[in-house]
Design a protein that fits this description.
By secondary structure, the protein is an alpha+beta fold. The chain contains 2 helices and 3 strands; from the N terminus they run E-E-H-E-H. A hairpin with a 6-residue loop joins strand 1 and strand 2.
Length: 85
């Protein structure tokens, strides 16, 4: 899962939400729904909404911290395998 922020340029509505991180393993219908979620304003119905990663809300900050920790763990693993200190 991933935290997202969607902003509608037409009505100014901002929505913070969570959804799938990737489309891997999703059905055609699930991929179509993902596309709609990314482009459609839940307030006015505009299909011009812009979605990006959420790093502002509490949940978004939590997801950012998890991503940062995953990068650290992977980096430590690679350094260990390469014998780098």
């Amino acid at each position: 899962m991933e935290a997202y922020k969607t902003v509608c340029p037409d009505c100014g509505y901002v929505r913070f939400w969570t959804g799938w991180k990737t489309g891997l393993g999703k059905t055609k219908e699930q991929l179509e729904q993902m596309s709609r979620d990314f482009k459609t304003c839940k307030k006015c119905g505009s299909v011009n909404a812009k979605t990006g990663s959420d790093r502002e809300s509490e949940i978004g900050r939590d997801f950012a911290a998890m991503d940062k920790e995953a990068v650290r763990v992977i980096g430590d693993f690679i350094k260990e395998r390469l014998g780098v200190k």
